[in-house]
């Protein structure tokens, strides 16, 4: 059992705690949160100890690995601390909102072999993984076009938005990584973005958007669309469509149960989709943890890696630059 | 162009008139209805002449073939008249409500080679036909179980019901024929029926039912369910499920257009199904007419035949007998 | 944490062990199996102790409740032992293959308030439960017809079949219980059955069947179909269709992930269904355990109860009698 | 009956001839094609006369209206001729490949009240129309994002491509018009295009593309994606997705019949989609003709109009300009 510590006991931290404890491979030993009562509450529910500081977590000899689910601005610091302490880390995305901080972090940890896995959970969704595997197998031919739909159930509050770094760095970054995961070696080289505050026009005042269509061209010319909206009345909408020379694959949404209704107002109607990522991607979070444990215990490469985290951010940067210029923007490498 | 006459200008007769005139292979020349204005109205819309009597239709030298869409009690008489006149006939189902009249008719026309086709239109539905063809091809293995769902959108009025001979002779008869069509040579040999007036309990007073489940066993032991209801709030429900050793085939319902709605009250909801047989089975009626023209012009065997009409009625008789005895009833042959 | 013991460490027992240990409400303390190594293996994986005898389980003061997953012939004995020991029991279905043994057991435990829950897991499937709740709410009107499809992925081996008591007692019994669950207070009063060995005709030699259609009529006249097959090439097929005066509800199958394939050989094709009950009904087994814990800890009535187990068996008996007589058979009460 | 003439007797001309003759409102009287045998063949099948020249068609006093289905380079000439002759015209798209010719034509016909309808058939598809009506009703809230998928079953031959004016003028132009139809008064003002020869890289030699993603922004900021491919192994793929504040609407593909297959290789698989526009949009072509007859007989405004034809072409021009510059391009008005 991997003795696992958790830094950050908010909503997503609590979910990690639960998953760590439900697994037969991991065990939650130590938790920390800047807000003491949050840490105490998770500790009580899970039988873990509380660390007063993040440093205490990294110093603790009884900790094999650390999950970082604290606010974004702390991620790079904690990654550096984990590397110094020699403790494998599974860190929530993004590494940082400022790409300069990410690059500095990269310099600081250069040459390390301490495993660093970034929390792009969608790579571990069974449906998305199956699309990736089918594409990689070649059975469906050569990939031509990729369309990723990602629509949140409801907009976050203004407080969240103010710290999130913009929709494209906060939300689309998952889709950038998912696109890269599905594309394999053929990286996006050019990004064009269209984004507006259409759902809530007041967002313009904080220079924020809530709907986006982003097109990327890969090195081999493939076309990728990312379609985002911050509000979806029918539930969290997470779909992939991969058009290939031999056919098309879709990874579709899932309903909480298999009920279909047939009435005078419609036929074969499913339930609204699972509400949000904690429900929709539960299996993905479990598989993500398993991959992390494999990395720690069996030495499989950490994936998605720190470099993946950086590359997703570079795509977000290119998208923001395109928004300003109206031009397709080359991705920095 | 086959010079075609029509006897019976009610709802289904008018539909036949339209289909005959829209076809490049047929032309409506003569119409008759006991209710003069109905005949006149169809004649005017289609450019056909009006015959004062049914006899005049069969005597007319300018008529190549006759479609009979008059009330059931006239069907056997008109089939006999058509045979005497040597005119091919496409006659709506059923041949008669009384099996003795059907048998007498069979005697009367014994030895004829005048084509007689019974209007079991569902055999010509593209989906149902495709199921039959797949089963016949053997690609899906040996058929084990067959489930036919047939639910009308809304119950007919009491007037209709009083003349209809009971739901099983009037409505289920289509499903008996469809089952036989799908089963090929393996005929149902035993019938068990369960039927009640569940939607409108007042029907019990006229000894009528509105919901039925009828199970048949074939000579080779296959199992067939027919599931009927006289009311379906989500539209006319017409489905086939064929379970075989290699997989399952369904012929599913069709919506008027391909709209899917995703809202807080449901996802991927289609429109209610097409309202009733004239809409749902329009293609089937067109293919049915083509098969009739092929029979007349090319000498292909009339199908479904008079014998098919008789056999469907024998299944209905067995079902009614089972309702009385509570026992599985052998089908007469 | 409910200190839970397990008797029977075969396939389904191992699944119970896993679910008990994954729950934050239960803890596996003691296991027993007549085959020692099976018990040892489960004990090792779960940290439980091994009991040499079943008696030792019931005598153990450190056991709060017992799950019985041993062979059917032991169920009634263990239920009686649990009652004598005052330990709540969750017992796999059926109570016994011989209804006389079930009735003797009922006499033996008469008057007890020790909770006895029978393992009809399907009642706890989220989709099936949602159908039940919608029906109970009345939103979809009055239920008219119920169709339950239950097809196993592949036939069991001959050894299993010889001890299983016949398909209708072994497999259909789940559907009998599910029907009763969905029907609420309106119990089936009459059963008619059609069953043959169609998939593997050799089964006739052991007087066994592999395909069945069973129709039941309820006290209020509702119609129920149960449709079974022992082989389904496309995966475990578990569906409900509830036709009501206001519309239709279906509880449909689930695929392992949301992939849809579109190729020249077909469009919108999902993956084959989850293989069998352990995968398909995993959530149901978890909810079943929670209901059991609620009964033990909060005193909610045990459900499905011993009486439910008896009633399902009476429906199976009526079905077998109908098979012999060809007649609809009254259900004993 | 509207006495209708047809200029152009190729594949799409023959389809128009059939539809004109199947309608009870129209009658084909006169046909012309530069290739005499094509005209003769349509004339024979439909009972129409043959005109030796296009001029003879416009001069014929026995012609009420003209359908133009000849090669694109003749469209503007024939529109001008129709206006001079005072004969209503239904002209296939596009008006011309060269926008200067379209503008000259506009000048030439300025002030006319002779009805000119452009053959953007997709506006008349029942599913697409239903989406438009639902959006217009406001029941689904405010439209935010529109995604149009349009993939041909197989690439056309090189000969066709050389005369087609480029995929975006030839194929995407339908989608530009469809987008405008669905958007109502909120016109696209900015276009950004990504297009490559991905399916057949040899197309680069003739400066042609076969895959495209085109994003448009409307005056009110709405986002529109058009997704094209010249090859779709699973059949002609024609879909709309409209994301709105109250939910999402899709207009989905249709299969030739309602068969679903369930086997070890997939579940609920439909047939491949209808092959191409003549099959997929048959109903649309019929409704299109009815709209044209309404315009001629009842004076309803011609729609889609000459201006609609021009505006779709302006969007194509903007897309081509964007391809060259990599920038979002303002649409000329």
Largest sheet descriptor of chain A = 7 strands, mixed
Number of domains of chain A: 2
CATH-wise, what's the superfamily of the largest domain in chain A? Dihydrodipicolinate Reductase, domain 2
What does the average pLDDT of chain A come to?
96
Task: Give a short overview.
Four copies of one chain form a homotetramer. Chain A is of the alpha/beta class and about 325 residues long.
Structural key phrases:
homotetramer; 333 residues; alpha/beta; Rossmann fold; Dihydrodipicolinate Reductase, domain 2; seven-stranded mixed β-sheet; six-stranded parallel β-sheet; 12 helices
What does this structure look like?
Four copies of one chain form a homotetramer. Chain A has helices at 11-22, 36-46, 54-59, 75-85, 99-108, 126-137, 158-164, 167-170, 172-183, 277-280, 282-298, 306-325, and strands at residues 2-7, 26-32, 49-50, 65-68, 89-91, 116-118, 143-151, 188-196, 211-218, 223-229, 237-244, 247-251, 259-263, 266-269, 329-330. In chain A, helix 4 (75-85) runs parallel beside helix 5 and helix 5 packs antiparallel against helix 12. Helix content of chain A is 38%, strand content 25%. Chain A is of the alpha/beta class and 333 residues long. The first copy, chain A, folds into two domains: 2-114, 3-Layer(aba) Sandwich (Rossmann fold); 123-274 and 305-330, 2-Layer Sandwich (Dihydrodipicolinate Reductase, domain 2), CATH 3.30.360.10. Chains in contact: A-B, A-C, A-D, B-C, B-D, C-D. Chains A and D meet through strand 7, strand 8, strand 9 and strand 10 of A and strand 7, strand 8, strand 9 and strand 10 of D.
